[in-house]
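$ fold --in a.seq
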Amino acid sequence: MSFQNPVFIPGPTNIPERLRKACDMPTIDHRSPLFGQILHPARAGVRKILKSETAEVFIFPSTGTGGWETALSNTLSAGDKVLAARNGMFSHRWIDMCQRHGLTVEIVETPWGQGLPADRYAEILAADHAHEIKAVLATHNETATGVKSDIAAVRAALDAANHPALLFVDGVSSIASMEFRFDDWGVDVAVTGSQKGFMLPPGLAIVGFSQKAMQATATAGLPRTFFDVRDMEKGYANNAYPYTPAVGLLNGLNEACTMLLDEGLEAVFARHHRIAEGVRTAVRAWGLELCAASPDLYSDTVSAICTPEGFNATDIVSHAANTYGVAFGTGLGEVAGKVFRIGHLGSLTDVMALSGIACAEMCMADLGLDIPQGSGVGAAQDYYRANPAPAKKAAA
Protein backbone atom coordinates (compact mmCIF):
# COMPACT_ATOMS: atom_id res chain seq x y z
CA MET A 1 0.00 0.00 0.00
CA SER A 2 1.29 3.47 -0.85
CA PHE A 3 1.15 6.42 1.52
CA GLN A 4 1.06 8.68 -1.54
CA ASN A 5 -2.35 7.51 -2.71
CA PRO A 6 -5.63 8.58 -1.12
CA VAL A 7 -7.75 5.85 0.44
CA PHE A 8 -11.20 4.97 -0.86
CA ILE A 9 -12.43 3.03 2.13
CA PRO A 10 -15.45 4.25 4.11
CA GLY A 11 -13.25 5.08 7.07
CA PRO A 12 -10.77 5.88 8.35
CA THR A 13 -10.72 8.66 5.80
CA ASN A 14 -8.00 10.86 4.35
CA ILE A 15 -6.62 13.32 6.91
CA PRO A 16 -6.06 16.94 5.81
CA GLU A 17 -2.63 18.29 6.67
CA ARG A 18 -4.27 20.99 8.79
CA LEU A 19 -5.80 18.32 11.03
CA ARG A 20 -2.63 16.23 11.20
CA LYS A 21 -0.84 19.29 12.52
CA ALA A 22 -3.63 20.02 15.00
CA CYS A 23 -3.31 16.52 16.47
CA ASP A 24 0.49 16.86 16.69
CA MET A 25 0.89 19.00 19.78
CA PRO A 26 3.04 19.15 22.90
CA THR A 27 1.93 17.45 26.09
CA ILE A 28 -0.21 19.64 28.32
CA ASP A 29 -1.64 19.14 31.79
CA HIS A 30 -5.04 17.65 31.03
CA ARG A 31 -6.30 18.78 34.42
CA SER A 32 -5.48 22.42 33.81
CA PRO A 33 -7.74 25.23 32.53
CA LEU A 34 -5.77 25.05 29.25
CA PHE A 35 -7.38 21.69 28.49
CA GLY A 36 -10.81 23.26 28.90
CA GLN A 37 -9.94 25.63 26.05
CA ILE A 38 -9.71 22.57 23.80
CA LEU A 39 -12.50 20.44 25.29
CA HIS A 40 -15.40 22.87 25.49
CA PRO A 41 -15.06 24.38 21.99
CA ALA A 42 -14.83 20.86 20.55
CA ARG A 43 -18.05 19.85 22.31
CA ALA A 44 -19.77 23.04 21.15
CA GLY A 45 -18.63 22.43 17.58
CA VAL A 46 -19.99 18.89 17.59
CA ARG A 47 -23.32 20.18 18.94
CA LYS A 48 -23.56 22.55 15.96
CA ILE A 49 -22.73 19.78 13.50
CA LEU A 50 -25.47 17.64 15.05
CA LYS A 51 -27.81 20.60 14.46
CA SER A 52 -28.82 20.70 18.10
CA GLU A 53 -29.34 23.46 20.61
CA THR A 54 -29.50 21.25 23.69
CA ALA A 55 -27.66 17.94 23.13
CA GLU A 56 -25.15 16.98 25.78
CA VAL A 57 -22.03 15.99 23.88
CA PHE A 58 -19.67 13.37 25.31
CA ILE A 59 -16.35 12.40 23.74
CA PHE A 60 -14.71 9.15 24.81
CA PRO A 61 -11.28 7.72 23.90
CA SER A 62 -12.80 4.94 21.78
CA THR A 63 -14.51 4.34 18.43
CA GLY A 64 -18.08 4.24 17.16
CA THR A 65 -18.51 0.83 18.78
CA GLY A 66 -17.77 2.42 22.12
CA GLY A 67 -20.39 5.01 21.28
CA TRP A 68 -22.95 2.23 20.77
CA GLU A 69 -22.07 0.83 24.19
CA THR A 70 -22.35 4.30 25.73
CA ALA A 71 -25.89 4.64 24.37
CA LEU A 72 -27.02 1.28 25.73
CA SER A 73 -25.27 1.12 29.08
CA ASN A 74 -26.25 4.60 30.23
CA THR A 75 -29.96 4.39 29.48
CA LEU A 76 -31.13 0.77 29.73
CA SER A 77 -31.34 -2.13 32.18
CA ALA A 78 -30.90 -5.88 31.71
CA GLY A 79 -34.03 -7.41 30.24
CA ASP A 80 -35.23 -4.19 28.63
CA LYS A 81 -36.71 -4.60 25.18
CA VAL A 82 -35.36 -2.75 22.15
CA LEU A 83 -36.56 -2.66 18.56
CA ALA A 84 -34.09 -2.89 15.71
CA ALA A 85 -33.94 -3.81 12.03
CA ARG A 86 -31.10 -5.90 10.67
CA ASN A 87 -30.33 -4.60 7.17
CA GLY A 88 -26.53 -4.70 7.13
CA MET A 89 -23.38 -5.58 9.03
CA PHE A 90 -23.37 -2.59 11.34
CA SER A 91 -27.00 -2.88 12.38
CA HIS A 92 -26.23 -6.57 12.97
CA ARG A 93 -23.30 -5.72 15.23
CA TRP A 94 -25.34 -3.26 17.30
CA ILE A 95 -28.02 -5.93 17.74
CA ASP A 96 -25.32 -8.40 18.82
CA MET A 97 -24.09 -5.90 21.41
CA CYS A 98 -27.60 -5.50 22.79
CA GLN A 99 -27.95 -9.24 23.19
CA ARG A 100 -24.57 -9.53 24.91
CA HIS A 101 -25.75 -6.88 27.38
CA GLY A 102 -28.77 -8.96 28.31
CA LEU A 103 -31.30 -6.87 26.41
CA THR A 104 -34.25 -8.39 24.59
CA VAL A 105 -34.19 -7.42 20.92
CA GLU A 106 -37.20 -7.51 18.63
CA ILE A 107 -35.49 -7.85 15.28
CA VAL A 108 -37.08 -6.84 11.99
CA GLU A 109 -35.17 -8.82 9.37
CA THR A 110 -34.73 -6.59 6.34
CA PRO A 111 -33.06 -7.39 3.00
CA TRP A 112 -29.54 -6.02 2.72
CA GLY A 113 -29.78 -3.15 0.26
CA GLN A 114 -33.01 -1.84 1.76
CA GLY A 115 -33.43 0.96 4.28
CA LEU A 116 -35.02 0.81 7.71
CA PRO A 117 -38.67 -0.31 7.48
CA ALA A 118 -40.30 2.67 9.18
CA ASP A 119 -43.76 1.35 8.29
CA ARG A 120 -43.05 -1.92 10.10
CA TYR A 121 -41.65 0.02 13.05
CA ALA A 122 -44.91 1.97 13.14
CA GLU A 123 -46.97 -1.22 13.31
CA ILE A 124 -44.86 -2.72 16.10
CA LEU A 125 -44.83 0.47 18.15
CA ALA A 126 -48.57 0.99 17.76
CA ALA A 127 -49.18 -2.56 19.00
CA ASP A 128 -46.92 -2.09 22.04
CA HIS A 129 -49.66 -0.77 24.31
CA ALA A 130 -47.69 -1.61 27.46
CA HIS A 131 -44.69 0.33 26.18
CA GLU A 132 -42.37 -2.60 26.76
CA ILE A 133 -40.03 -1.30 24.06
CA LYS A 134 -37.60 1.06 25.76
CA ALA A 135 -35.47 2.04 22.77
CA VAL A 136 -35.52 1.98 18.97
CA LEU A 137 -32.21 1.48 17.18
CA ALA A 138 -31.68 3.09 13.79
CA THR A 139 -28.60 2.89 11.58
CA HIS A 140 -28.72 6.11 9.57
CA ASN A 141 -26.14 5.05 7.00
CA GLU A 142 -25.43 1.33 6.65
CA THR A 143 -21.77 1.35 5.69
CA ALA A 144 -21.75 -2.27 4.48
CA THR A 145 -24.39 -1.72 1.79
CA GLY A 146 -24.18 1.99 1.00
CA VAL A 147 -27.76 2.54 2.17
CA LYS A 148 -29.12 5.58 4.00
CA SER A 149 -32.37 5.42 5.96
CA ASP A 150 -35.04 7.97 6.76
CA ILE A 151 -34.60 8.83 10.43
CA ALA A 152 -37.39 11.40 10.31
CA ALA A 153 -39.75 8.58 9.30
CA VAL A 154 -38.66 6.51 12.31
CA ARG A 155 -39.36 9.49 14.58
CA ALA A 156 -42.75 9.90 12.90
CA ALA A 157 -43.53 6.24 13.66
CA LEU A 158 -42.74 6.81 17.33
CA ASP A 159 -44.83 9.98 17.45
CA ALA A 160 -47.79 8.42 15.63
CA ALA A 161 -47.92 5.68 18.25
CA ASN A 162 -47.38 8.22 21.04
CA HIS A 163 -44.62 5.89 22.17
CA PRO A 164 -42.07 6.98 24.82
CA ALA A 165 -39.19 4.78 23.60
CA LEU A 166 -35.81 6.41 23.18
CA LEU A 167 -34.47 6.82 19.63
CA PHE A 168 -30.83 5.80 19.20
CA VAL A 169 -29.16 6.61 15.88
CA ASP A 170 -25.90 5.23 14.55
CA GLY A 171 -24.53 8.15 12.54
CA VAL A 172 -20.96 6.88 12.40
CA SER A 173 -20.66 7.15 8.61
CA SER A 174 -23.15 9.99 8.12
CA ILE A 175 -22.61 12.70 10.73
CA ALA A 176 -20.41 15.55 9.44
CA SER A 177 -20.90 14.28 5.87
CA MET A 178 -24.65 13.97 5.31
CA GLU A 179 -27.71 15.84 6.56
CA PHE A 180 -28.29 15.04 10.24
CA ARG A 181 -30.84 16.84 12.42
CA PHE A 182 -30.62 15.82 16.05
CA ASP A 183 -33.31 18.19 17.31
CA ASP A 184 -35.68 18.13 14.34
CA TRP A 185 -35.64 14.33 14.17
CA GLY A 186 -36.12 13.92 17.91
CA VAL A 187 -32.96 11.85 18.33
CA ASP A 188 -32.19 10.81 21.89
CA VAL A 189 -28.69 9.42 21.41
CA ALA A 190 -26.56 10.01 18.30
CA VAL A 191 -23.34 8.04 17.84
CA THR A 192 -20.38 8.80 15.62
CA GLY A 193 -16.60 8.63 15.60
CA SER A 194 -13.58 10.74 14.74
CA GLN A 195 -12.35 8.76 11.74
CA LYS A 196 -14.99 9.42 9.10
CA GLY A 197 -16.69 12.77 8.44
CA PHE A 198 -14.49 14.51 10.99
CA MET A 199 -11.41 13.43 8.95
CA LEU A 200 -9.33 12.44 11.98
CA PRO A 201 -7.51 9.27 13.03
CA PRO A 202 -9.60 6.67 14.88
CA GLY A 203 -9.72 7.10 18.61
CA LEU A 204 -12.77 9.15 19.61
CA ALA A 205 -16.33 7.97 20.20
CA ILE A 206 -18.57 11.02 19.90
CA VAL A 207 -22.11 10.87 21.28
CA GLY A 208 -24.93 13.35 21.75
CA PHE A 209 -27.57 12.80 24.46
CA SER A 210 -30.97 14.46 24.59
CA GLN A 211 -32.33 15.66 27.91
CA LYS A 212 -34.68 12.67 27.89
CA ALA A 213 -31.71 10.33 27.51
CA MET A 214 -29.88 12.13 30.31
CA GLN A 215 -32.89 11.56 32.57
CA ALA A 216 -32.78 7.85 31.73
CA THR A 217 -29.24 7.60 33.13
CA ALA A 218 -30.68 7.96 36.64
CA THR A 219 -32.57 4.66 36.46
CA ALA A 220 -30.47 2.64 33.98
CA GLY A 221 -29.21 -0.59 35.52
CA LEU A 222 -26.62 -1.80 33.03
CA PRO A 223 -23.10 -1.60 34.42
CA ARG A 224 -20.86 1.12 33.10
CA THR A 225 -17.60 2.60 34.30
CA PHE A 226 -15.40 3.77 31.46
CA PHE A 227 -18.46 4.87 29.44
CA ASP A 228 -20.40 6.46 32.32
CA VAL A 229 -21.67 9.82 31.05
CA ARG A 230 -22.39 10.93 34.62
CA ASP A 231 -18.71 10.67 35.51
CA MET A 232 -17.82 12.41 32.27
CA GLU A 233 -20.28 15.21 32.98
CA LYS A 234 -18.70 15.80 36.39
CA GLY A 235 -15.26 15.86 34.83
CA TYR A 236 -16.30 18.35 32.16
CA ALA A 237 -17.55 20.73 34.84
CA ASN A 238 -13.96 20.90 36.09
CA ASN A 239 -12.28 21.14 32.65
CA ALA A 240 -11.23 17.50 32.98
CA TYR A 241 -11.95 13.84 32.31
CA PRO A 242 -12.46 11.09 34.89
CA TYR A 243 -9.33 9.56 33.33
CA THR A 244 -6.67 10.58 30.82
CA PRO A 245 -8.13 12.07 27.61
CA ALA A 246 -6.77 11.89 24.07
CA VAL A 247 -5.73 15.53 24.07
CA GLY A 248 -4.22 15.64 20.58
CA LEU A 249 -7.29 14.07 19.01
CA LEU A 250 -9.55 16.47 20.88
CA ASN A 251 -7.50 19.37 19.57
CA GLY A 252 -7.91 17.89 16.10
CA LEU A 253 -11.67 17.55 16.64
CA ASN A 254 -11.89 21.19 17.63
CA GLU A 255 -10.08 22.14 14.42
CA ALA A 256 -12.18 19.74 12.33
CA CYS A 257 -15.37 21.35 13.60
CA THR A 258 -13.98 24.76 12.73
CA MET A 259 -13.16 23.59 9.20
CA LEU A 260 -16.60 22.07 8.65
CA LEU A 261 -18.50 25.03 10.08
CA ASP A 262 -16.38 27.52 8.13
CA GLU A 263 -17.20 25.63 4.93
CA GLY A 264 -20.85 25.58 5.97
CA LEU A 265 -22.75 22.38 6.70
CA GLU A 266 -24.98 22.67 3.65
CA ALA A 267 -21.88 23.10 1.48
CA VAL A 268 -20.29 20.05 3.16
CA PHE A 269 -23.37 17.96 2.39
CA ALA A 270 -23.52 19.26 -1.19
CA ARG A 271 -19.84 18.45 -1.70
CA HIS A 272 -20.36 14.87 -0.54
CA HIS A 273 -23.41 14.49 -2.76
CA ARG A 274 -21.54 15.81 -5.79
CA ILE A 275 -18.56 13.48 -5.32
CA ALA A 276 -20.92 10.54 -4.72
CA GLU A 277 -22.94 11.30 -7.84
CA GLY A 278 -19.77 11.20 -9.91
CA VAL A 279 -18.96 7.75 -8.54
CA ARG A 280 -22.51 6.56 -9.16
CA THR A 281 -22.35 7.88 -12.73
CA ALA A 282 -19.19 5.83 -13.26
CA VAL A 283 -20.87 2.69 -11.88
CA ARG A 284 -23.71 3.08 -14.38
CA ALA A 285 -21.21 3.54 -17.21
CA TRP A 286 -19.55 0.27 -16.19
CA GLY A 287 -22.90 -1.48 -16.53
CA LEU A 288 -22.88 -2.42 -12.85
CA GLU A 289 -25.41 -1.83 -10.09
CA LEU A 290 -25.27 -0.58 -6.53
CA CYS A 291 -26.28 -2.73 -3.59
CA ALA A 292 -28.70 0.02 -2.51
CA ALA A 293 -32.06 -0.95 -3.96
CA SER A 294 -33.20 2.48 -5.19
CA PRO A 295 -31.85 6.01 -5.67
CA ASP A 296 -33.63 7.36 -2.58
CA LEU A 297 -31.47 4.97 -0.52
CA TYR A 298 -28.12 5.90 -2.07
CA SER A 299 -25.53 6.90 0.49
CA ASP A 300 -23.44 10.00 -0.15
CA THR A 301 -20.51 8.57 1.82
CA VAL A 302 -20.01 5.06 0.45
CA SER A 303 -21.07 3.09 -2.62
CA ALA A 304 -21.29 -0.71 -2.46
CA ILE A 305 -20.90 -1.92 -6.05
CA CYS A 306 -22.23 -5.31 -7.10
CA THR A 307 -20.09 -7.41 -9.39
CA PRO A 308 -21.39 -10.07 -11.82
CA GLU A 309 -22.57 -13.37 -10.33
CA GLY A 310 -19.73 -15.84 -9.98
CA PHE A 311 -17.08 -13.12 -9.73
CA ASN A 312 -15.38 -12.60 -6.36
CA ALA A 313 -15.56 -8.85 -5.70
CA THR A 314 -12.91 -9.14 -3.00
CA ASP A 315 -10.36 -9.84 -5.74
CA ILE A 316 -10.76 -6.23 -6.90
CA VAL A 317 -9.84 -4.96 -3.45
CA SER A 318 -6.85 -7.29 -3.12
CA HIS A 319 -5.61 -6.51 -6.63
CA ALA A 320 -5.90 -2.76 -6.09
CA ALA A 321 -3.86 -3.00 -2.89
CA ASN A 322 -1.20 -5.36 -4.21
CA THR A 323 -0.78 -3.95 -7.72
CA TYR A 324 -1.62 -0.26 -7.48
CA GLY A 325 -1.26 0.55 -3.78
CA VAL A 326 -4.86 1.74 -3.50
CA ALA A 327 -7.37 0.83 -0.80
CA PHE A 328 -11.03 0.05 -1.50
CA GLY A 329 -13.49 -1.57 0.91
CA THR A 330 -14.44 -5.23 0.84
CA GLY A 331 -17.95 -6.60 1.15
CA LEU A 332 -19.03 -7.62 4.65
CA GLY A 333 -21.41 -10.24 5.98
CA GLU A 334 -24.12 -11.28 3.54
CA VAL A 335 -22.54 -9.26 0.73
CA ALA A 336 -18.97 -10.50 1.24
CA GLY A 337 -17.49 -11.35 -2.15
CA LYS A 338 -20.51 -9.85 -3.89
CA VAL A 339 -19.64 -6.15 -3.64
CA PHE A 340 -16.64 -3.91 -3.35
CA ARG A 341 -16.98 -0.51 -1.74
CA ILE A 342 -15.74 2.92 -2.72
CA GLY A 343 -15.72 5.33 0.20
CA HIS A 344 -16.24 8.95 -0.86
CA LEU A 345 -16.42 10.89 2.37
CA GLY A 346 -14.30 13.22 4.39
CA SER A 347 -11.36 14.94 2.74
CA LEU A 348 -11.95 14.13 -0.92
CA THR A 349 -12.15 16.08 -4.18
CA ASP A 350 -13.49 15.22 -7.62
CA VAL A 351 -9.90 14.86 -8.87
CA MET A 352 -9.15 12.37 -6.10
CA ALA A 353 -12.39 10.53 -6.83
CA LEU A 354 -11.43 10.25 -10.51
CA SER A 355 -8.16 8.57 -9.54
CA GLY A 356 -10.09 5.98 -7.53
CA ILE A 357 -12.52 5.37 -10.37
CA ALA A 358 -9.60 4.94 -12.80
CA CYS A 359 -7.89 2.46 -10.48
CA ALA A 360 -11.10 0.43 -10.09
CA GLU A 361 -11.38 0.28 -13.89
CA MET A 362 -7.83 -0.97 -14.25
CA CYS A 363 -8.41 -3.65 -11.62
CA MET A 364 -11.62 -4.91 -13.21
CA ALA A 365 -9.97 -5.03 -16.63
CA ASP A 366 -6.94 -6.83 -15.20
CA LEU A 367 -9.26 -9.41 -13.64
CA GLY A 368 -11.17 -10.08 -16.84
CA LEU A 369 -14.37 -8.08 -16.38
CA ASP A 370 -15.70 -6.47 -19.55
CA ILE A 371 -15.25 -2.88 -18.40
CA PRO A 372 -14.19 -0.54 -21.23
CA GLN A 373 -11.19 1.47 -20.12
CA GLY A 374 -12.12 5.09 -19.53
CA SER A 375 -15.87 4.48 -19.49
CA GLY A 376 -16.43 5.27 -15.82
CA VAL A 377 -13.76 7.95 -15.73
CA GLY A 378 -15.26 9.67 -18.76
CA ALA A 379 -18.78 9.53 -17.35
CA ALA A 380 -17.64 10.94 -14.02
CA GLN A 381 -15.61 13.65 -15.77
CA ASP A 382 -18.69 14.68 -17.72
CA TYR A 383 -20.72 14.84 -14.52
CA TYR A 384 -18.13 16.89 -12.62
CA ARG A 385 -17.65 19.27 -15.55
CA ALA A 386 -21.40 19.78 -15.89
CA ASN A 387 -21.75 20.22 -12.13
CA PRO A 388 -18.67 22.18 -11.05
CA ALA A 389 -17.86 22.67 -7.39
CA PRO A 390 -18.75 26.16 -6.14
CA ALA A 391 -15.83 28.58 -6.19
CA LYS A 392 -14.24 28.89 -2.78
CA LYS A 393 -13.91 32.29 -1.16
CA ALA A 394 -10.42 33.71 -1.21
CA ALA A 395 -8.71 33.74 2.17
CA ALA A 396 -8.79 37.13 3.85
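$ fold --in b.seq
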Amino acid sequence: MARCPLYESCAFLKDETFEKMQGLVHRFQQIYCQGNYSGCARYKIASALGESFVPTLMMPNQIEWADQVLLDQQSA
Protein backbone atom coordinates (compact mmCIF):
# COMPACT_ATOMS: atom_id res chain seq x y z
CA MET A 1 0.00 0.00 0.00
CA ALA A 2 1.14 3.57 -0.68
CA ARG A 3 2.50 5.91 1.94
CA CYS A 4 0.11 8.51 3.36
CA PRO A 5 0.03 11.67 1.23
CA LEU A 6 0.24 13.73 4.44
CA TYR A 7 3.32 11.89 5.74
CA GLU A 8 5.74 14.79 5.27
CA SER A 9 3.48 17.34 6.96
CA CYS A 10 1.94 15.22 9.73
CA ALA A 11 2.38 17.00 13.04
CA PHE A 12 2.07 13.71 14.95
CA LEU A 13 5.41 12.57 13.56
CA LYS A 14 7.10 15.85 14.49
CA ASP A 15 5.49 16.66 17.85
CA GLU A 16 7.87 16.80 20.82
CA THR A 17 5.20 15.21 23.00
CA PHE A 18 5.68 11.89 21.23
CA GLU A 19 9.51 11.97 20.99
CA LYS A 20 9.81 9.80 24.10
CA MET A 21 7.43 7.22 22.63
CA GLN A 22 9.43 6.25 19.56
CA GLY A 23 8.31 2.60 19.72
CA LEU A 24 4.68 3.65 19.63
CA VAL A 25 5.28 6.21 16.89
CA HIS A 26 7.13 3.62 14.80
CA ARG A 27 4.27 1.15 15.19
CA PHE A 28 1.71 3.76 14.15
CA GLN A 29 3.90 4.58 11.14
CA GLN A 30 3.83 0.92 10.10
CA ILE A 31 0.09 0.58 10.54
CA TYR A 32 -1.12 3.93 9.24
CA CYS A 33 1.57 6.00 7.50
CA GLN A 34 2.91 3.13 5.41
CA GLY A 35 -0.22 1.04 5.41
CA ASN A 36 -3.86 1.86 5.97
CA TYR A 37 -3.63 5.65 6.04
CA SER A 38 -7.32 6.00 5.22
CA GLY A 39 -7.98 4.41 8.63
CA CYS A 40 -5.94 7.07 10.44
CA ALA A 41 -7.98 9.44 12.60
CA ARG A 42 -5.66 12.33 11.75
CA TYR A 43 -5.89 11.66 8.01
CA LYS A 44 -9.66 11.40 8.23
CA ILE A 45 -9.94 14.93 9.61
CA ALA A 46 -7.16 16.44 7.49
CA SER A 47 -8.59 15.10 4.25
CA ALA A 48 -12.11 16.30 5.10
CA LEU A 49 -11.43 19.64 6.81
CA GLY A 50 -7.74 20.44 6.49
CA GLU A 51 -4.75 19.75 8.71
CA SER A 52 -5.42 22.77 10.90
CA PHE A 53 -8.53 21.02 12.27
CA VAL A 54 -6.59 17.99 13.56
CA PRO A 55 -6.20 18.17 17.37
CA THR A 56 -2.52 18.36 18.27
CA LEU A 57 -2.52 15.40 20.64
CA MET A 58 -4.73 13.12 18.53
CA MET A 59 -3.18 9.73 17.87
CA PRO A 60 -3.83 7.89 14.61
CA ASN A 61 -6.03 5.27 16.27
CA GLN A 62 -8.45 7.74 17.91
CA ILE A 63 -11.21 7.31 15.33
CA GLU A 64 -14.08 8.09 17.73
CA TRP A 65 -12.51 11.44 18.51
CA ALA A 66 -12.04 12.13 14.79
CA ASP A 67 -15.68 11.27 14.13
CA GLN A 68 -16.71 13.71 16.87
CA VAL A 69 -14.57 16.50 15.39
CA LEU A 70 -16.16 15.91 11.99
CA LEU A 71 -19.64 15.87 13.51
CA ASP A 72 -18.98 19.06 15.48
CA GLN A 73 -17.80 20.83 12.31
CA GLN A 74 -20.91 19.75 10.42
CA SER A 75 -23.04 21.20 13.21
CA ALA A 76 -21.14 24.51 13.31
